[in-house]
Specification:
Keywords: ATP-binding, Kinase, Membrane, Nucleotide-binding, Serine/threonine-protein kinase, Transferase, Transmembrane, Transmembrane helix
CATH topology of the largest domain: Transferase(Phosphotransferase), domain 1
Strand content: 25-35%
Radius of gyration: 24 Å
Number of domains: 4
Structural class: alpha+beta
Largest sheet: 7 strands, antiparallel
Oligomer: single chain
GO molecular function: protein serine/threonine kinase activity
Protein name: non-specific serine/threonine protein kinase
Number of helices: 12
Domain Protein kinase: 10-273
Helix content: 25-40%
Pfam family, one: Pkinase
CATH architecture of the largest domain: Orthogonal Bundle
Length: 457
């Protein structure tokens, strides 16, 4: 189609790309002064009601999941000729496919991307949805104040897990879809997406597309020196026998994260900090180099900076500003710890370095947990002295935005600092309950996080 002038109030700038079913345009929201991407159903499918249904179902899924790791849908409307269009997040840095084409990615960068892609697919699985078309070109990249964001996109083939046994047509992209997806009427489950994650991992690591199933050449043979655990994980994900694959996207992603956090990710090569140790000694006078090293190392261990990035939960009606180092994992339904739950705190939003170990005592996880309570409460039970082996320091909050209490343990069982807070807006009944865990006691950071909380309803 020729370039239109506008879609509703959105002024069209240029075409971003076209696929089998839709064209995507870059447009500008002049009212809010913000760039958006607009996906429009192709003209040749205008009268195909099943295709229109699939198009609108993609918009519904993206709107309902409302995740940091998925492209957001802001609006849906219909053109005069009856074709629907959706207004979405504009990803200004292209796609992961563009990155792979440029050059071989450093291993840590490839594993970071893979972890964030896996988190997006985990959100879909938790929503009861199979993506069915995971590939590098369907993973977009957006710049943000705290760095590059990964956004899983293009859910045109996505289907409910409950309907998985009823698929009547093959769907997906050859080279990335599981063997069972190529069989019409195949009984699919989330492990089909795990296969696709394995194919994406293969390409991110080696720069080459994975062979068709059965895959017999491990990525380590193309890129020598990879951790054996990474070779094993990718090959298991690419198994033609789905019973041999990781059980779901979360299991796969957790293993990728664990491999990435190993101290020597490339056994065949010296780590970057060791290779350049001599040069650092000689160039110790260059304070900027030292600052970069310190920042990199502290980020790896969860030490937060004062650079905050917002995370959202529509279900909990909350926006929370958290250090970017803690935004690596988002959990939208994390249970409160028992003392807080007894006081009325329910499941909430968690942004943490390791969501799986948030409630354990033998592992360290730093981050922010928050939930919204229907009435103003003091939540005195959070101050139980046995939480960290000693009573907390208690103080009041009385700012223009918040009233309430804060309890602080500067040393919690030699495992960093813990801050709990129960605050509410003056005159409002709703209470925001937070827990903030830090590697070290920094009350100014806790105050900044508390001050940055917003109730979105």
């Amino acid at each position: 189609m020729s370039q239109p002038e506008a879609f509703g109030r959105y002024r069209v700038i240029r075409r971003l790309g076209s696929g089998s079913f839709a064209t995507v345009w870059l447009a500008h929201d002049d009212l809010l002064n913000y760039p958006v991407a607009i996906k429009v159903l192709a003209e040749n499918w205008a009268h195909q009601m099943d295709i229109q249904h699939r198009f609108l179902e993609e918009a519904r899924i993206l709107r309902q999941t409302d995740s940091t790791w998925l492209v957001a849908v802001h609006d849906v409307d219909v053109l005069p000729d009856g074709r629907p269009y959706m207004v979405m997040t504009y990803a200004d840095q292209g796609s992961v496919a563009d990155l792979v084409k440029r050059d071989q990615l450093p291993l840590d960068e490839a594993l970071r991307l893979l972890t964030e892609i896996g988190q997006g697919i985990t959100v879909l699985h938790n929503h009861g949805t199979i993506h069915r078309d995971i590939k590098p070109s369907n993973v977009l990249l957006q710049s943000s104040p705290v760095g590059q964001r990964v956004l899983v996109a293009d859910l045109g083939f996505a289907k409910s897990i409950d309907e998985a046994s009823g698929f009547t047509a093959a769907a997906g992209t050859p080279g990335y879809m599981s063997p069972e997806q190529s069989i019409p009427g195949g009984d699919l489950d989330v492990r089909s997406d795990v296969y696709s994650l394995g194919a994406v991992a293969y390409e991110l690591i080696t720069g080459k597309q994975a062979p068709r199933a059965p895959v017999r050449t491990p990525p380590g043979r193309i890129r020598p020196g990879l951790p054996p655990a990474l070779d094993e994980l990718i090959m298991s994900a690419l198994s033609a026998d789905r019973d041999s694959r990781p059980g779901d996207a979360k299991t796969f992603t957790d293993r990728v994260r664990a491999i990435r956090m190993e101290p020597d990710p490339l056994p065949g090569e010296q780590p970057w900090w060791r290779r350049h140790r001599l040069q650092w000694r000689r160039l110790a006078v260059l304070g900027a180099t030292l600052a970069v090293m310190v920042l990199t190392l502290t980020s790896a261990f969860g030490t937060p900076s004062m650079s905050l990035t917002p995370v959202y939960s529509a279900a909990h009606e909350l926006r929370v500003d958290v250090p970017s180092e803690w935004a690596s994992e988002l959990h939208l339904d994390m249970a409160a710890r028992p003392a807080a739950a007894e006081a009325g705190a329910g499941p909430g939003l968690l942004a943490a370095t390791d969501a799986g170990n948030w409630h354990t005592t033998h592992e360290t996880s730093y981050g922010v947990y928050t939930t919204l309570l229907p009435g103003a409460r003091e939540l005195e039970k959070v101050a139980e002295s046995d939480r960290c082996g000693h009573p907390p320091v208690e103080r009041r909050v009385d700012s223009q935005r918040w009233e309430g209490k804060v309890w602080e343990w500067s040393d919690c069982d030699d495992n960093g600092a813990l801050t709990a807070a129960a605050v509410h807006e003056p005159g409002e009944p709703k209470t925001v309950y937070l827990e903030i865990r830090q590697p070290e006691y920094r009350p100014e950071l806790a105050d900044a996080i508390i001050d940055g909380v917003r109730v979105t309803a």
